[in-house]
Design brief:
homodimer; about 350 residues; alpha/beta; Aspartate Aminotransferase, domain 1; seven-stranded mixed sheet; 9 helices; 14 strands
């Protein structure tokens, strides 16, 4: 079978060597005589995996010592509730930006626990940009943002500067670019884009800010409970954590987040410049809000769709169909997607112009 | 390396052919050209996996049509909260039995949402038996039980007969024996014993009893939300669900739950009869409460420990050390553990008697 250029929006492409090593460990974990997935999570080898995964996350993100990393279950969708439980005080108020489907879901879950002020929204424009921030004041416990909006292909170019801590769902751009962690109380995200396979969610939390809500929090939703158990309050998602560690080790070998950011910027520059140059295509996200991870675009004339779809399929490209909320196409270019795959797509776009333009 | 007899309490032994097929799919999923873990969960092949996994669960458990099956995240520990959210009405009351550490945790989480009457407890005897049930009345929304207590090696021989629906955490004996599902409103359990690898939790719920609590339930904790999305409200734990399906297919090929129950009873009879016969050993769980899944026992004289530990280690047995709450030894004999492995342990016990008795 010829090489597949995997543009899946998530779960998504992982490095081939990670897939190989994860497969080997499922068959028999090197040196253990058993499969990774039939061993106790309390065994020394797996405790070492969890510890390294937490420590390497902290190192790659350049987090200050006061941050602690957890790998739990439930995805960012449960994270929406967990974030509010841990940082929205009883009777309190928080600020949220509404930048897409997942941001709106975060708002919905937080409203179970307190008042939410939506201080910015681009919903009326089908979330095609990151909206200008309204007033955030010291009466807000935090400002919640979704740093990258997978469906719409928008991304915060800079993190907002506000007088309260930031809480961010970084599911779809974590580990893709550097950022200053100082303003953050909590960073969380499903691992199934840049960090690993589906089945785990990462929380990086400033432990000094925890425990101040006055709430009696159910155990699984209490980050302090998980911290007190070194991320093993209950059986962790063993395979997902192990394979996340392999992916983080791969990232470290690439030179870390700053190095992969350069590659990611080269990939997105290549594709956006073709979208802007090629008269057959137009982008969805506005300039200044464009995502380096998910590039949303469409044909100017629907009559070219059949030829374009045939061409990219024949070129071995998969996962390019846009989300139903936006239509058109979406090229998800996570860390493990090589520049070569982007060149293949750009070549198909150029060829379409030559034959149909 | 010689064969390992894997007595791990969970995550635990899985059938070798399941490990092989899961490993192959992580490398490259047959016919897909991609790894299982780098594809969209919305792809047709994975949707088919989820659908088959849910349907096969229902078939193997012999559940009536009104039951629906979900595969979610968070383990039984989040299930404790989910169970109460979905079945304990606002201002309501439920009955719980306290038969071990996990049962006590279930009680703790339910108390976030309403009143709990503990209608039976064997805590004072270090949970060495299933206690006689106190009064359960129609003022209780349900009776919650933990059908098998992994740490203590006790198990309900018969499900309680009460005038209210049953809610059960079956994490450590689901799919190991047949039972009448009629009295149940909800059955749930982490899959990491008899059903698959860590990372997923199964809910089998009577949909006709859902939605009656008067609560505004956070989305991830609302079983109706998950049902409305066919168990894909958010990204599911892809690898865990896939490998659970492989394990369920294996179980079906063994003849299903009734057939594996015969094997499980033969295994536990072999080991319990040796514990009872051999003057060097004594069981922890009382007769009538003994688990077929987790056999807890200890030496009558600690002076034999060094020789015994050396012998079972040399025989290739792993995971036999008891939980710190009970001490001694625990032989976890889940579905995939062959009778041959139990014979190896029994032979070691007999040999200890011959040389040390």
């Amino acid at each position: 079978m010829s090489k597949i250029h995997n543009y899946s929006a998530g779960p998504c492409i992982l490095p081939p060597e990670v897939l190989q090593e994860a497969a080997d460990a499922v068959r028999q974990w090197e040196g253990q005589g058993l499969s990774l997935i039939e061993m106790s999570h309390r065994s020394k080898p797996f405790v070492a995996v969890m510890d390294e995964c937490r420590a390497l996350t902290k190192e790659l993100l350049g987090l200050p010592d006061r941050f602690e990393v957890l790998y739990l279950q439930g995805g960012a969708s449960l994270g929406f509730l967990t974030a509010a439980y841990n940082f929205l005080p009883e009777g309190g108020r928080a600020a949220y930006t509404d930048t897409g489907t997942w941001a709106a879901n975060a708002i919905k879950e937080a409203r179970h626990l307190g008042d939410v002020d939506v201080v910015a929204s681009s919903k009326a424009e089908n979330y095609n940009h990151i909206p200008t921030l309204g007033e955030v004041h010291s009466g807000h416990a935090y400002l919640h943002i979704t740093t990258n909006n997978t469906i719409y292909g928008t991304q915060y170019a800079e993190m907002p500067k506000v007088p309260v801590p930031l809480v961010a769902d970084m599911s779809s751009d974590i580990m893709s670019r550097t950022f200053d962690p100082e303003p953050f109380a909590l960073i969380y995200g499903g691992v199934q884009k840049n960090m690993g396979p589906a089945g785990a969610v990462m929380y990086a939390v400033d432990r000094e800010r925890l425990g101040a809500t006055g709430r009696n929090i159910p155990s699984y939703l209490d980050l302090n409970v998980h911290l007190s158990k070194d991320s093993m309050f209950n059986t962790p998602p063993v395979f997902s954590v192990f394979t996340t560690l392999l992916t983080l080790r791969w990232l470290q070998a690439q030179g870390g987040v700053a190095a992969i950011q350069q590659v990611n910027e080269a990939k997105s520059a290549l594709l956006y410049s073709e979208i802007d140059r090629n008269p057959l295509f137009v982008g969805h996200a506005l300039m200044g809000s464009r995502s380096h991870m998910n590039v949303t675009f469409r044909l100017n004339h629907e009559e070219h769709a059949a030829a374009f779809d045939k061409s990219w399929n024949e070129a071995g490209i998969s996962g390019l169909k846009g989300h139903r909320s936006v239509g058109g196409y979406r090229a998800s270019m996570y860390n493990a997607l090589p520049l070569e795959s982007v060149q293949v797509l750009v070549d198909v776009m150029k060829e379409l112009e030559r034959t149909q333009g």
